[in-house]
């Protein structure tokens, strides 16, 4: 058999985890992150601001509790609400939209908890900083809603963004959470990726909570 009779070599692209290029596999994890960000940031941004507007913050500052205890008391119900919403979103994604779920509930609980804590920290920081519900809602929409839509990688590929925008995406927890969700649904548990992304979200959460405690007065002046 001569060299001329050999079939030419052809190169075919292969998509491993989404061969049909179905957009719902990317959009639905982004939608879950958006819903949790709305609960975690937009709702909690109104909590402390409402206390200042109604004058009840003065009564709370007269009690012996410190800022950490006050934030923890407001943190727990919104954390439970956010995790319940996450469970409902995952159930709808799997049962109604037929997304595969190749990871484990442990990894889902871990990454969702850290993302929700970071979102709650951002909401409390906005609420304490502004002390006004209208301004707090506007800042929450700017810092939570828009980055989750534009900078999370759910709608637009981060690698195709300009360098300055790519660097900006590292400041928002949605970037890491959407990557984790897409991995859990489509690929499975890749714990090295989860630990790296949850560590970044944990640093963001710590920064916001420490900043909130720092600007929260311990007593009336």
Layout: helices, strands, pairs:
Blueprint: H1 24-43, H2 47-54, H3 56-61, H4 67-95, H5 105-130, H6 133-150, H7 163-169, H8 173-186, H9 191-215
Helix pairs in contact: 1-4, 1-5, 1-6, 1-8, 2-5, 4-5, 5-6, 5-8, 5-9, 8-9
Characterization of the model:
The protein is mainly alpha-helical and about 220 residues long. The protein has one domain (about 25-45, about 65-215). The protein has nine helices and no strands. Helix 2 (about 45-55) runs parallel beside helix 5 (about 105-130). About 40% of the residues are buried. The model has no long low-confidence stretch (mean pLDDT about 85).
Provide keyphrases for this structure.
221 residues; 9 helices; single chain; mainly alpha
């Amino acid at each position: 058999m001569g060299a001329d009779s050999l079939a030419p070599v052809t190169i075919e692209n292969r998509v491993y985890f989404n061969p049909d290029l179905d957009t719902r596999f990317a959009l639905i994890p982004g939608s879950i992150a958006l819903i949790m960000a709305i609960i975690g940031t937009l709702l909690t941004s109104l909590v402390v601001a409402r206390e200042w507007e109604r004058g009840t913050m003065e009564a709370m500052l007269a009690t012996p509790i410190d800022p950490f205890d006050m934030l923890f008391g407001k943190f727990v119900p919104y954390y439970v609400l956010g995790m319940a919403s996450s469970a409902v979103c995952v159930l709808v994604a799997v049962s109604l939209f037929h997304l595969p779920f190749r990871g484990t509930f442990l990894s889902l609980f871990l990454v969702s908890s850290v993302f929700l804590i970071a979102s709650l920290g951002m909401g409390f920081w906005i609420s304490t900083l502004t002390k006004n519900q209208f301004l707090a809602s506007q800042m929450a929409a700017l810092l939570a809603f828009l980055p989750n839509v534009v900078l999370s990688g759910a709608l637009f590929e981060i690698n195709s963004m300009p360098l300055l925008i790519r660097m900006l995406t590292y400041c928002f927890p949605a970037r890491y959470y959407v990557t984790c969700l897409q991995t859990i649904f489509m690929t499975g548990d890749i714990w090295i990726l989860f630990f790296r992304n949850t560590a970044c979200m944990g640093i963001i959460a710590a920064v916001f909570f420490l900043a909130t405690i720092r600007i929260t007065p311990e007593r009336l002046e």
